TrEMBL record, chains A, B, C, D, E:
Keyword line: Cell membrane, Chloride, Chloride channel, Ion channel, Ion transport, Membrane, Transmembrane, Transmembrane helix, Transport
Subcellular location: Cell membrane; Membrane
Keyword Ion transport: yes
Membrane topology: Multi-pass membrane protein
A Pfam short name: Bestrophin
Keyword Hydrolase: no
Name of the protein described by the UniProt record: Bestrophin homolog
C-alpha cells in the first residue's frame, strides 16, 4: 500500500493522508514555488511547452512561406487577409468569458474540497463513545471501521478512475479485506434490484452502519445515551459528503460553457498565429517574423488560465495535478488502524506535573 | 417507474437518485466532455446550431444583395448605414451585463441545488430511532415514509411541470399509493379554507408528520428521548428546503434584468449581421462576404453564455439540460424502500475479524 | 384580509404565505417570462418607457433645432460642442461602478431574504413539544401563537410602510386581536422608559415569550426536558432575524455609493442625448437624427440595470416589485391557525398499509 | 447616557441599540435617499465638495495661466506636456484596482457586522435557565449581567476611540458601575503578569463568567441540566465575536493595497487636472477651459468610490458615517435592564382567549 | 518567551495572543495608515522601493544610450523596435488575470484565518465541565492543557518555519516542557510505523486527548453527562482546523496560476522599461526620457497588487507581513495558564449589588 509517487499532489491532502517525505520537503517545495518562478513540477511551463513548440513552428513556417514563397502581390493579399483576421482577436470576448469560467470552476473546487467526507470523525466518535466493558467491543469496533472504510471506498470508486483501477470489482475489494463473502453477495443482490446500481452501493453500507449503531444503542453499549444520535449524525455527514462528491464529479459546470470558453481560446490562438503581420521595417520584420512574443504571450497566459479551470473541474483523475485519492485512502486506512488501537487503552494521570512551562 | 431516458441530466442528481447506467458510463462521459470538445449532447453546438444557420443565411443574403442588386452609389449608401450601425456593436455594454447576469444566475442555481431537500435523512432518522419492539412499528414506519414522500411530491409538483404531468391531480397521487382516501379528502378540504391553495398542501402533510412524531414520542417508542427533537428538526429541514425551492422557482433573478440582457444580446446579433461591411480588396471581400467569423463568433459565444444563465434560472422544466425530477423522485422511492427494509433487522457481530487489512 | 392584487411580487414569498392563484398560474407566468421577452409585468419596458419617450422627444428636438434653426456656421459650433461632450461618454467609468453597485445590492438582498424570520418554526416547535394533557394547553398555545405573530408584526411594522398603513397604531393592532388591553399599556409604558422606542417594542414581546416558555418548563409541560432549550433557540432566531431585517432596511449600501452611481448614469444619459452628432451623409443624417438607437440603447440598458439594484435596496415598500409583506403576514396567520389546530390531535396508525408503492 | 446626536449612523444598529427618533423618521430618511439624490447627510456631495472646490480653482488657474501668461510658443510646449501626461490617465489601471479594493473592503465589513457580538443572547439565556427559587437568584443575575456588559465594554474599548474617550481608565469604568473595587485590582494585577495587556482584559472577565456558570451549575440552579452547556456556548460566542472584531480592527485589508489604490486615485486626479487641453475652437476652448466636467466627473466618481471603501475599513471611529458604538452600548445596557426585570416574573395564562384573529 | 519584536504583524492576532504595546498604539497605528498614506511599515513603498530604483536606473540608461550613443538612423531603428514591443503592453491581459489571482488568494486567506484553530475553547470547556471534587482534578487539567498545546504546536510546526526554528526536534519540545519522555518515545515510534510521518504526529496527540476524555467520562468526573460529547467536539474542531491549515499551506492556489500571473507582470515591467519612446518635442523628450511616470506607475501598482496576493498565499513565513505564529503560540500558553488557574476557583455572589448602572 505504499504510494509509489510520494510527491505533492495538486490541491489538498485530506485528514489522515498527509504523506509528504517529512516536514522540510514541504517547506522547501512551498518556498521554491515562490522564490523561483521557474520551477518545473506542476508549472505553467509544463502546461504549455508542447503547445508553445507547435505554435512556434507554425509561426515561423508562415513567416518563411511569406518571405520566400510569396511575391510582393501575394504578400499584399496575405497582409489583407491577416489584417482581416486580426480583427477577430480584438473583438473576441476572451478575457471575461475566461475569468467567469475559471472563477466558477475554482469556487466549485474549493467548496467540494471543503466538504469532502473523511472517515476520521465517525470512527473516532464510535471508539470514544463505546463502553470499554462491552462483551464484543473489539469486534464491534473492527466491523464499524471496516464498514466506514468500505462506504468511503465505494463512494470514491464511482468518481475516481485510479481507485477503480486498483479495485476493479467487488471481488477485489473482498480480497483487500474490506468486504466479506456474504456482504459481497448482498451488494450484488442489491445491484439486481430496481433502482440498484453501482452508485447506490455506498447506501447499502450506510444502512449496515445505521443497523450496527442501533444495535449498539439497544444493547446499552454507549457511554452516554445521546452518543447514539451523535454517531448517527456522523454517518449522515459521511453519506452527504459522498453524495456531494458524486454530484460534483457528474456535473458541475455546464458542458456548453466549457466548450464555449475552450473554443474561444483555441480560436484566439489559431487567429493569433495566422494573423501575424510581417512588419515592413527590416529590424521589426525580423522581430515580428521570428519572435512572436506579442502574439504568443497573451495566448499562453489565456491557455494556462483555461487549464487551471479545467483541472479544477475534473480533480479525481490520474494527472499529476489531480488529487491523489489512492494516497488519501491509504491515509484513511492508517488513521483507522490508529484509532482502533485506542479502543480500551487506559491512561494514567501523573500525580504531579512539573513541566517547565507550567511553572513559568 | 423506469426512467426512459437514462442519460445524464444537466446539473445534479440528488441523494438516492443517482441512476446512470453503471460507473464506467459516467467516467467516459465525463472524460469525453474534456477530451473531445466536439461532443454533441448538451453541447455548445446543440445550443446554437439553429441560430447559426439562420445567421449564415441572412448574412450571405445581404452580401449577395449588396454585390449583385446594388449599384456603386447604393453600395456607398449601404456602407454608410452599416458603419453607422457598427458603432452600436462597440458601444453596447454586452459583456459585463452578461457576466453579471450569468454569475448571479449560476450562484443562485448552486445555492438552490445545495439546499434541495431530500427524504433520506428524515426517514433514516425515524427508522434508526424507533424502538424495534414497538407494537405497530412496521405500520408506523410505512406511514411515516409515505407522508415524507407525499410531502416531497406535493412540494415539487408545484415547481416541476413533468411531475405535474405524471401526477395531474390528487386522485392520481392516490392511485399511485401515496395518499389514502380520507387523507385526500382532508387535503381537498384544506384547499377550500381561507389561505388554502395548492402551495400550502405540503404544509398539511407537514402537520401530519409532526402529529405522528408527537404520538411516537408520547407512546415512548423512541429509543432515546432526545430523538424526538432530532426527528422534528429533520422534518423542519424538509419543509424549509421545500420552501426554498418554491421561492427559487417563483422568482430568483428580476425579470427586468433577464429581459435587458436578452435584448442586448439579440440587438448585438442583429446589428452584427446587418452591419457587416464588404471589404474592397478582392480577397477579403470574399472572406468578409461569405465567412462571417469575426462577426459571428463573438455573438455566438455571448449567446451560449446567455443560454447557460437562462438554463440555470429555470432548472425544473423538461428540457434536456434540466434536472430530471422524475428520476430523482424514483430514486427517493427506492431509497425509502431500502431504509424501510432496515427496520427491525438484526446484525451479528463476528466474534473475530481476521480481514487482511486489519492485520496489515 | 384577502389580498386585492394576487399577482406575483418581485422577490420571494415566505413560508406560509405562498398565495398565487393556483399552480398553473405560476408555471405559466414563469415560462412566459422566458419564452416571450416582451412581457409587460415587472418588465424592462415598464421600467424605462417613460424615460424612453422623454429621451426621444429631447433627441428629436435637438435634431430639428440643429437642422432647421442653425446655419452652417452654428452647426459647426454645435458639432464642436457635441464632440467635446461626447468624450465624457467614453471616459465615464459607468459599467464597472454600476456592476459593483448592483452586485453588492443583490447580494445583500439575497442574504436578507435567506435570513428573513418566519413564525412557523417557533410555533410548530411549541405545539409539538407541549404535553397534551396540560391543564391550560389550548390557552397556552393560543397565547404563544399570538405573541409570536405580534412580535413578527411589530418587527415588520418598523420597516414596511404598507404594514404601518394597515396597523397605524397599537390600538389598531389591539383591534385586530393581536394585543390585549393590559399588554398594550405595557408596551406604551415601555416606550416612555429610557431607551424605549418603537424599535424596541418587539423586544418586550420577546421577553414575554421567554417568560411564557420558562413558565411552561417549570410546570413540567414539555414532553422532553431539552425542548425548553430548543424553544428558547427558536425565539432567539426569530429575534435575530428581525434584527437583521431592521438593520438591512436602515442601512445596507452606503448612500454615497447609491448617489454616485445614480448620478453617473443620469450624466451619461444627458450627455448621450446632447452629444449626438448629425452625420453629413444624407442617409445616415436621417438615421442619426431620428433613430437614436446607438446612443439610447446603452443608456437604457444601464438604466434598467441601475433600477434592479435600487429595487433590491428597498424591498419593503409598496411598489409592484417589492415584497408583499401584507400577503406574507396573512400567510403567517393562516399557518399559525393550521398549527394551532394540530394541538392535541390524535393519529391512528393503520394496522396494515397496503399502498401500491409499498408493494412495488 | 442620552446620545446627543441621535441621527442614523452609517452601517448598522445592533440588537438592543436601535435608537432612531421614532419609526416614521427612518422611513422618510430611507425613502429620501432614493427619491432625492441630492440629500446632503452622508452623501456623495458631502464627501467630495471640498476636493471639488480645490479641483476647480486649480483647473481654472491653469486655464488662466495658459490663456493670458503664455505666448503661442509656450502654449505649444504646454500642449505637448499635457498630452504626454494625458497618456497616464488612460494607462492607469484605476477602475479594476479600485473595484477590487472596495469590494474586498465591503465584504469584510458585511462579514464583521454579521458577526458582531451582542449581549442579549447570553443574558437572556441565563435569565431563562436560572431557577426562580434560587436563594441569591437576583444577585446572581445582576452579577452575570454586569460581567457580560463589562466584557463587551472592555472588548470594544480596544477598537473604538469614542468608547475609550468615555471610559478612559478602569477607574472610570468602576465609577460607571461596571466594575467593583476588588475586580479592578484583579484586572490591574493581570496586566502586570506576562502576556497580560489591555487586549487580554476581556479574557479575564470571560474567566469570571465561566466560574460563575460552573458555580450555578454545581449548586443545581439550572432548570435543565443541559442549560449549563448552552450558557457556556453563549459566552464562548461572545468571546469569539469580540476576538473577530479586534482582529478586524487591527488588520483587515493589507496596508499596501490601501496605499496603492489611494495613490492611484490621487495621481489620477492630479494628472486629470494638469493634463487638460485647451481646445482651439473658440466655443470649446471656453468649455474645456472653465467647465472641467469630462475631466472632473470620472475622478470624483472614483474618489467617492474609494471613500466608501475606506469608511468600510475603519468603522469604529468617530466620523459621521461610522458605527455609533456609544449608542449601541447604551442599547445593550437598556436591553440588559429589561431582561433583568424579567427574572422571576410570573405570567398568567388567560383561561379563554377570544381574540378576533383566533376566531377568524 | 517574550516576543522580541512586539510590532503588529500583517494579518491577524489570534485569540489569546493579542499583544500590542497597549491600546493607544493600535489605535494610532490604525489611524496612521489612513491619515498618512506615506507610512513606511508594511507599506506600498517598502514593497516596491528596490524595484523602483532598478527600474529608474535601467530606464535612464536606455535614454542616455539612445540620446548619446545612437545616430539618427539607429534611433529610428530603436524607435521601430520599441513601438513593436509597446504593442505587447496593451495586448497583455494583465489586469484581469491579476485581479482574478489576487481575489482568489485573499478569499482563501480570509477563509483560512476564519478557521484557524485555537486552544481556548477545548481548554475552557474541559476546565468548566470537570467536577471540582475530582481526586486528581488538577493533574488532569494540567495534562489536558499540555496535550492541547502540544497538538497545536505539532500542527503549526508543519507549516511555520519560525516555529520549526524555535523547536527543531521532539527533544527540544520536550525540553520546553510540552512533552514527557515516554510520550516522545511513543511519537518517535509512531513515525517509524507505516503511514507515520511528521504530519501525522498531531493525530497521535489527538488520540491521547480522546482517551483522556473517555477516561474522565467513565470515572464520572463530568458535571453533566452531555459534556463528554461537547469536549469530544471541541477536540474534533481543533483537529479539523489544524488539517485545514496544513492543507492551505501545502497547496491553495495552483502553482501554474501563480507563475502565469507573476510572469505576466514581470514581462509587463520589462517591456514597459524597454519600449519607452523618446518623444521628439524637446520638452517632452526630457519628460519621457527621465521621468518615466506614465510607464512606471501602472507597473508598480500592478506589482504591489501582485505582492499582496503572494503574501496572502504564504502567510506562515518569517516576513514582516506574515502572521507571527511565535507570538500567537505564546498567547496560547498564557491563555492556557489563565484558564488553568480558574479550575476550582470559587466565586462569592454579593448579597446585594448596588452598582450605579443597575440603579439608573
Amino acid at each position: 500500500m505504499k504510494n509509489k509517487h510520494p510527491k505533492l499532489n495538486f490541491g489538498i491532502e485530506l485528514d489522515e493522508s498527509i504523506q509528504v517525505d517529512g516536514v522540510s520537503a514541504t517547506a522547501t517545495k512551498f518556498g521554491e514555488s515562490f522564490r523561483g518562478i521557474f520551477r518545473w513540477q506542476q508549472s505553467f511551463f509544463k502546461l504549455v511547452w508542447k503547445q508553445a513548440i507547435i505554435y512556434y513552428i507554425v509561426y515561423v513556417s508562415i513567416t518563411l512561406f511569406y518571405s520566400f514563397a510569396l511575391d510582393s502581390g501575394n504578400q499584399a493579399n496575405f497582409d489583407a487577409i491577416t489584417s482581416y483576421l486580426a480583427r477577430y482577436t480584438s473583438s473576441l470576448p476572451v478575457v471575461l468569458l475566461l475569468g467567469f469560467f475559471t472563477s466558477t470552476a475554482l469556487n466549485r473546487w474549493f467548496s467540494i474540497m471543503a466538504s469532502m467526507p473523511g472517515t476520521n470523525r465517525p470512527i473516532a466518535l464510535y471508539v470514544a463513545s463505546l463502553k470499554e466493558d462491552a462483551a464484543d467491543g473489539c469486534a464491534r469496533v473492527d466491523l464499524y471501521i471496516r464498514y466506514v472504510l468500505l462506504m468511503w471506498l465505494l463512494t470514491f470508486r464511482i468518481v475516481c478512475k485510479p481507485l477503480r483501477k486498483r479495485y476493479p470489482s467487488l471481488l477485489s475489494i473482498q480480497a483487500a479485506g474490506f468486504l466479506r463473502d456474504h456482504e459481497r453477495l448482498l451488494l450484488e443482490k442489491h445491484k439486481q434490484q430496481p433502482g440498484g446500481r453501482s452508485k447506490t452501493l455506498p447506501l447499502v453500507v450506510y444502512d449496515w452502519l445505521n443497523i450496527l449503531l442501533r444495535d449498539t444503542c439497544q444493547k446499552g453499549y454507549f457511554t452516554v445515551a445521546n452518543d447514539f444520535g451523535r454517531n448517527i449524525d456522523a454517518i449522515q455527514a459521511l453519506k452527504k459528503g459522498g453524495g456531494n462528491v458524486i454530484r460534483f464529479a457528474s456535473k458541475n459546470v455546464p458542458v456548453a460553457l466549457i466548450q464555449a470558453v475552450t473554443l474561444a481560446i483555441y480560436c484566439y490562438g489559431i487567429v493569433s498565429v495566422f494573423s501575424h503581420q510581417i512588419e515592413k521595417h527590416y529590424l521589426t520584420s525580423v522581430l515580428s517574423g521570428y519572435f512572436p512574443l506579442p502574439y504568443a504571450l497573451p495566448f499562453f497566459f489565456y491557455y494556462a488560465w483555461l487549464k487551471v479551470g479545467r483541472i479544477a473541474i475534473d480533480p479525481f483523475g490520474s494527472d499529476e495535478d489531480d488529487i491523489d485519492i489512492l494516497n488519501i485512502f491509504d491515509g484513511h486506512i492508517n488513521g483507522a488502524m490508529r484509532l482502533r488501537n485506542c479502543y480500551g487503552v487506559k491512561i494514567t494521570i501523573p500525580s504531579t506535573d512539573s513541566s517547565t512551562f507550567l511553572l513559568s
